[in-house]
User: Which sequence fits this backbone?
């Protein structure tokens, strides 16, 4: 579609990001060397659809965008929107989103986006590649219209009476978190222009760590600060990457990690893990100079792959090597065996595992045989009836859990002896135990 700006909003935002300076013309943006990809998703009334937004995000992904400026907001959660932004993060795109303007003369100051029922999207999506932005005025005070959130809103930037470009080769003043957001996007572009090796994680970390803390923002945004380009540009280089990561399962609920610390200026190490077929996600960040960690948040019978990286205020190191371990399945316990007839023994046991695919039931008889599997039962099943047995015979049993990673150790062993066949029972002949034949 034609990306021409209907009401000047997008043009104003673009000027804040990248209007060229030192030319005695108009205004100056944050990053003079930026390339802007205009993608139009709203009409001249400022409304649009999630499907149009998703299409635009996917277009940006396909065409090599590094930063997405989202100077728009709504109060309805969309999984499609979440998935599109997550996909953008997967290819290293930083998504900078307006916290929203819910303050006016009728409803008072801006909303707390952390409050139940007051989340604003896309800013409130819990995704690592999002920076949510509130607005401040010329006195570094949070704008009365600006939403906030000590957890869900990351930083603030100027957003009151901002003079920038307007459609028709002119200029205008506008206010809103829509104006604050491009200051952050522009700073991200400036950082990337200064060092094109920065990842989206690095950009976010440098922006958040470079803020000037402001009294009006205490408890109102996560960093409690307003962005400062000079601070962000002059933070230290990222630390050297750790190496020699080694991972081993200590038990069904503990995995030990050890690595070599190759940096002398890290503030900590970020540990990430994934399961088979999953994506890496943060587990914990440990303090500087740490070279080991025991992960106790694992479950039994599960494959885990790990990687770590060092960080400081200036960014993240490259990742270490990857290493993996599989926790053993928990052993079923309290196996019981009870003979209930001449042909049937009932088994029961305790299920101690969170990840089994099922249980293997093994049996041997008391005449000196060896154990062999007689059946498998599904996950969570804790009983089994062994039938078609011989009367007055002793059988021994054991069970173990299994899944795709392997099998647990065996349970305790239990035995039971089937009942004897009594006269007149289904195990013997009828007629009082006598057989009479007559020839006619």
Assistant:
């Amino acid at each position: 579609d034609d990306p021409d700006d209907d009401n000047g909003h997008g043009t104003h935002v673009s000027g804040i990001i990248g209007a060229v300076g030192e030319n005695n013309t108009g205004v100056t943006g944050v990053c003079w060397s930026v390339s802007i990809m205009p993608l139009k998703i709203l009409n001249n009334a400022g409304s649009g659809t999630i499907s149009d937004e998703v299409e635009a995000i996917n277009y940006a992904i396909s065409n090599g965008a590094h930063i997405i400026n989202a100077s728009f907001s709504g109060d309805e959660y969309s999984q499609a929107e979440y998935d599109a932004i997550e996909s953008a993060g997967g290819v290293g795109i930083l998504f900078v989103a307006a916290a929203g303007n819910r303050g006016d003369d009728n409803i008072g100051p801006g909303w707390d986006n952390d409050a139940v029922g007051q989340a604003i999207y896309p800013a409130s999506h819990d995704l690592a590649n999002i920076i949510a932005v509130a607005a401040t005025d010329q006195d570094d005070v949070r704008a009365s219209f600006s939403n906030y959130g000590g957890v869900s809103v990351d930083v603030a930037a100027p957003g009151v009476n901002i003079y920038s470009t307007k459609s028709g080769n002119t200029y205008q003043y506008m206010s809103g978190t829509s104006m604050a957001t491009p200051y952050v996007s522009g700073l991200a572009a400036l950082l990337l222009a200064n060092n094109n090796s920065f990842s989206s994680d690095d950009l976010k970390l440098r922006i958040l760590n470079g803020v000037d803390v402001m009294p009006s923002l205490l408890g109102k945004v996560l960093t409690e600060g307003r962005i400062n380009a000079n601070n962000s540009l002059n933070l230290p280089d990222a630390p050297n990457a750790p190496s020699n990561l080694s991972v081993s399962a200590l038990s069904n609920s503990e995995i030990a990690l050890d690595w070599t610390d190759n940096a002398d200026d890290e503030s900590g190490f970020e540990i990430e893990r994934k399961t088979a077929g999953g994506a890496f996600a943060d587990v914990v960040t440990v303090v500087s100079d740490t070279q080991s960690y025991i992960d106790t948040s694992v479950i039994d019978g599960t494959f885990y792959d790990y990687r770590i990286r060092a960080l400081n205020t200036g960014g993240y190191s490259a990742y270490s090597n990857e290493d993996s371990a599989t926790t053993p399945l928990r052993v079923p316990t309290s196996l019981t065996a009870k003979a209930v007839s001449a042909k049937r023994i009932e088994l029961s046991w305790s299920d101690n595992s969170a990840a089994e695919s099922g249980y293997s039931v093994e049996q041997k008889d008391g005449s000196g045989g060896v154990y062999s599997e007689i059946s498998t039962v599904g996950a969570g099943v804790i009983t089994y009836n062994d039938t078609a047995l011989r009367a007055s015979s002793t059988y021994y049993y054991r069970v173990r859990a299994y899944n795709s990673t392997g099998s647990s150790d065996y349970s305790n062993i239990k035995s039971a002896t089937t009942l004897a066949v009594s006269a007149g029972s289904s195990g013997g002949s009828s007629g009082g135990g006598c057989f009479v034949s007559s020839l006619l």
